[in-house]
Specification:
- The structure is a single chain.
- This protein is mainly alpha-helical.
- It is 63% helix and 5% strand.
- The chain is built from 18 helices and six strands.
- It has a two-stranded antiparallel sheet with strand order 1-2.
Length: 429
């Protein structure tokens, strides 16, 4: 029987199994123990828990492990932890832990801390990804290829320039993630179930003890809001959505029909009947899971949006979608990094396509216009010549010498990649 509802009566195995969050609480087990330690320390500090009880509880908490607490007989890990303490220390000692707290503010605190831990791991992976991108961009700074718009060969660029585009996505994501991490570092502890607690808790001090940097001011919002989860999941899914476009390019370019990408053997599989196949299965799974993460974000929003401001058990069901998003992102970025490090790019084939498919036409038209001919006149004249097969387009090397900042000019690419690599050397990951 669950602990808190024991005074109501037996709910039955079906109900217990249906409403329990124990299977999902593995994600926050360490943080739940950490939050309880901070709570007990603070109750002793302000003199509302006997020092002897606090010392005994803190000593016993050092022995607690997630495995001991994740028992299916409880509604959640918070209930399991309190019952575990009472079983070991007795109610006269461990019974004090319920003072000045609610599951509502404690679960919100544990989720924030666990999300912060996972966000930090993801951030480090993306920072590492940026270093790999910069290294590869420098390696392929002169590797000409066609860019693609409408999946048609477009303006001539280099593969190094392409990789720096992915790097800029990563940089913007890290900028957004940093802002979201500041939200996660705000403590809901001391907010109680919705309106605070009569215990003389110093919320700023309690926040510091638990590892937070600030306090969520309003108690109702602190315990019942999940905006921090929505913001984090939204940022991560937006990043995965955009990164999946690059993944899709790499999957396409790995096809021998295009022939730009040579995928490492560890990332490909073959057919059960066609032994010639080299299917880029890791990135195919990444592409699918990015879409799945979007589904989890939708579910997270859908659960949260239809309940009033305040805690409902619906929020318990929402949290697993946050973990799914974060776990998929972290694992996916690790796969993407491994692929980038081991792949190679066929610069000869890419350059041939850039030349074959008129990828310097815009540069040729602009050069004519810069000599004094109205651009549209130059454009239509060149289009006619391309159609007739008589066009004399400028070379790839000439076309790439565009002077604008952030262009595919190999010198611009080398400069940007080298600057990034200096940062990577200064801050080894």
């Amino acid at each position: 029987m669950s602990f808190y509802r024991s005074w109501i009566g037996e709910e039955g195995e079906l109900i217990k199994r249906y409403t329990s969050s124990i299977k999902d609480d593995v994600e926050i087990a360490e943080e739940v123990i950490k939050v309880m330690e901070a709570h007990v320390k603070h109750l002793a500090e302000v003199g509302i828990m006997p020092k002897e009880a606090a010392d005994a509880i803190l000593k016993t908490l050092k022995e607690a492990t997630p495995e001991q607490l994740l028992s299916s007989e409880f509604e959640d890990i918070h209930e399991a932890l309190e019952k575990w303490l009472i079983d070991r220390l007795g109610e006269e000692t461990a019974g004090w832990v319920g003072l000045g707290r609610s599951r509502n503010d404690h679960v919100a605190a544990a989720i924030r801390l666990a999300a912060l831990r996972k966000a930090s791991a993801l951030r480090k992976n993306v920072e590492n990804m940026r270093c790999i991108l910069a290294k590869k961009a420098l390696e392929y700074a002169d590797c000409a290829m066609p860019s693609f718009t409408h999946f048609q060969p477009a303006q001539a660029i280099t593969f190094g320039h392409y990789l720096l585009a992915v790097d800029e996505l990563a940089a913007e994501f890290l900028h957004v993630l940093k802002a979201v991490e500041k939200l996660l570092k705000r403590s809901p502890l001391g907010a109680g179930p919705a309106g605070g607690t009569r215990a003389p808790i110093d919320r700023e001090r309690l926040a510091k003890l638990a590892g937070f940097e600030d306090v969520v001011e309003n108690a109702l919002y602190a315990s019942g809001s999940r905006f921090f989860a929505l913001a984090l999941a939204s940022a991560v899914v937006s990043f995965l959505t955009e990164l999946s476009r690059t993944v899709d390019d790499l999957v396409r370019w790995n096809s021998p029909l295009v022939g730009y990408v040579a995928a490492p053997d560890s990332h490909v599989s073959t057919s059960s009947i066609m032994p010639h196949k080299r299917n880029l299965v890791t990135l195919e799974v990444f592409r699918a899971r990015a879409a799945e993460a979007l589904g989890h974000l939708t579910a997270l929003n859908a659960v949260v949006m239809k309940i009033g401001l305040g805690y409902s058990l619906d929020l318990q069901e929402a949290t697993r979608h946050l973990w799914a998003v974060l776990n998929m992102a972290t694992e996916g970025v690790e796969i993407f990094i491994d692929f980038l490090e081991k792949m190679s790019f066929n610069c000869v084939k890419a350059r041939e396509d850039a030349e074959r498919y008129h990828s310097t036409s815009s540069d040729t038209a602009e050069t004519i216009a810069l000599s004094g001919v109205p651009f549209r006149k130059a454009y239509f004249q060149l289009a006619k010549e391309i159609k007739e097969g008589t066009a004399r387009l400028m070379s790839i090397e000439e076309a790439l010498q565009r002077p604008t900042r952030g262009s595919a000019n190999p010198e611009e690419v080398k400069k940007a990649a080298s600057t990034r690599l200096v940062f990577c050397r200064e801050k080894p990951l």
